[in-house]
Amino acid sequence: MAEENVVIPTHAAISLTTETGEASETFCQICTEGKSQEEMFRNENCSHVFCNDCISKHIAAKIQQNITMVECPDVGCQGLLDLQFCQPIVSAQVFERWENAVCESMVLASQRFYCPFKDCSALLIDDGGEVVTQSECPNCHRLFCALCMVPWHSGADCEEFQSLNEGDRGRDDLMVMELAKSRKWKRCPSCNFYVEKKEGCQHITCRCGSQFCYKCGSLWNDHRNCAST
Prior knowledge:
By secondary structure, the chain is α+β, with helices and mostly antiparallel strands. It is built from five helices and 15 strands.
């Protein structure tokens, strides 16, 4: 059997070569394991060499930290790893996250927003054109309000929705609001409880004790300009 000679190249790896000069195995400086040439990764921007598995884990860790400009793991090296060049050695999930992060970093923060549905959260871009409200997410195809940045608030316009308390913005609350509009119910200006008048005058006493005008919706002492009196 031919004796093997140890050769130390200038990049961050140690190669074992045969008498014919062909590399039989290369040692990765991260995991210190000997790997075949097919299992090694050479960064095109700095020529440092590590095994595919270590580079893949290095990239995944950086993406997990929301770092999009991934540098070579060699100490002191600032050579960047190229997204497309690294695609064959990373998982499809990591590549997709990296690609999305790079695309996102190229969009101005003022133009960037996300689908409000938590199980989607697709990146969307405001092109600064005409102001729109009801929009459809191109990813999940559900309706949302581009002005309020929430799932579409059926039954309330944007001004009404934004005036609601955080606890009154749920789907059930909006359905009640839509029903109230169709039935012409009024809300108590003190406690926001919906009241339906069957008969009688416009002077309403709510269950909370507040008195208000059913026609204009203001407190009874503040409806001087209301024509109901």
